[in-house]
């Protein structure tokens, strides 16, 4: 005898509409361990999407506290957070639990450089929501060494990019870097005699592009975890033109993250 379904029963399942997408592996999504590095504008949107999609095990890492200029583009921050004494990561975790009390989210206040491949091996996928080249390259190199898929996102005003790095199959972030990127890095580092300081100039940022890029990052994470092919190269988004394009990129044989490519 067929099971009877009463009107409204399916509406009691929080993720019923997502389950209607045949290729989405909701069990894999729920069990996956996800690391989000960066709790600023991109990190806010990414964690919001992860929580609403049904991810249950999330770790958010960031070293900063909230300033008032964050409030125009960070969906999980509130007026007054800038004087609360809480770090960005802790606040993002707190607000994610409000979105879905079933989420297990851990917040750590610290630098991305504290993570090596041994720590990254604990995760099934990593989302990079960072705003400087040095931190992103550290995350890229160590996640590639750990063989953990890494989805990098970045924005500048109304433009943004997403790259899904799936080792050992795809090019990594460093494969697309050129000499000018490294010159910029060199100029922004200065030695104080006691410590190394990284100077990051302020960049234009706004919420619509941040929302788009973070959403694509989470979608690519869902695709990877569900066994689908992620963005094969690099997606560039132009909010002014209303376009998004995927540009092909090859593995750089000189990239230190691809030693096997030097042998072929």
In DSSP terms, counting alpha (H) and pi (I) runs of 4 or more, how many helices?
Answer: 8
CA(first)-CA(last) distance: 60 Å
DSSP strand content: 15-25%
Tally of strands: 10
The residue fraction in helices comes out at 25-40%
CATH superfamily, by name, is NAD(P)-binding Rossmann-like Domain
Q: Tell me what the CATH architecture is.
A: 3-Layer(aba) Sandwich
Rg, rounded, reads 19 Å
* Strand ordering within the main sheet: 3-2-1-4-5-6-9-10
**What is the CATH C level class, in words?**
Alpha Beta
Main sheet properties: 8 strands, mixed
Q: pLDDT below 50 for ≥5 consecutive residues: which ranges?
A: 180-196
- What coarse outline follows from CA principal-axis ratios? globular
Helix and strand sequence: HHEHEHEHEHEEHEEHEE
At a glance:
The chain has 264 residues and is an alpha/beta fold. Helices cover 31% and strands 19% of the residues. The strands form 2 sheets. An 8-stranded mixed beta sheet has the order 3-2-1-4-5-6-9-10, with helices on both faces. A two-stranded antiparallel sheet has the order 7-8.
Characterize the structure shown:
Residues 180-196 have low confidence and may be disordered. The chain has an eight-stranded mixed sheet, with helices on both faces. The chain starts with 15 loop residues before the first helix and ends in a 17-residue tail after the last strand. It has one domain: Rossmann fold. It has eight helices and ten strands. Helices cover 31% and strands 19% of the residues. It has helices spanning 16-19, 26-31, 41-53, 88-99, 117-120, 133-145, 179-188, 207-225, and strands spanning 33-37, 57-62, 104-109, 125-128, 150-156, 159-165, 189-191, 196-198, 234-238, 243-247. The protein is an alpha/beta fold. Helix 3 (41-53) crosses helix 8.
């Amino acid at each position: 005898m067929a099971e009877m379904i009463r009107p409204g029963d399916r509406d009691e399942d929080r993720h019923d509409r997502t389950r209607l997408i045949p290729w989405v592996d909701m069990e894999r999504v729920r069990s996956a361990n996800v690391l989000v590095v960066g709790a600023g504008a991109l990190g806010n949107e990414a964690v919001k999407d992860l929580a609403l999609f049904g991810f249950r095990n999330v770790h958010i890492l960031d070293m900063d506290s909230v300033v008032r200029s964050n409030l125009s583009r960070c969906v999980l921050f509130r007026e007054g957070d800038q004087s609360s004494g809480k770090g960005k990561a802790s606040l993002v975790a707190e607000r994610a639990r409000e979105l879905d009390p079933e989420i297990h989210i851990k917040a750590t206040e610290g630098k991305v450089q504290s993570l090596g491949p041994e720590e990254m091996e604990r995760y099934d996928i990593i989302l990079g929501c960072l705003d400087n080249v040095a931190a992103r390259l550290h995350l890229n190199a160590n996640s590639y060494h750990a063989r953990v898929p890494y989805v990098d996102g970045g924005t500048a005003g109304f433009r943004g990019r997403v790259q899904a790095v799936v080792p050992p199959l795809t090019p990594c972030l460093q494969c697309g870097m050129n000499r000018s990127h490294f010159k910029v890095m060199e100029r922004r580092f200065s030695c104080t005699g006691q410590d190394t300081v990284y100077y990051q100039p302020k960049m234009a940022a706004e919420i619509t592009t941040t929302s788009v890029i973070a959403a694509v990052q989470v979608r690519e994470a869902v695709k990877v975890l569900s066994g689908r092919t992620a963005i094969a190269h690099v997606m560039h988004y132009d909010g002014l033109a209303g376009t998004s394009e995927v540009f092909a990129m090859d593995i750089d044989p000189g990239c230190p993250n691809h030693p096997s490519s030097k042998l072929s």
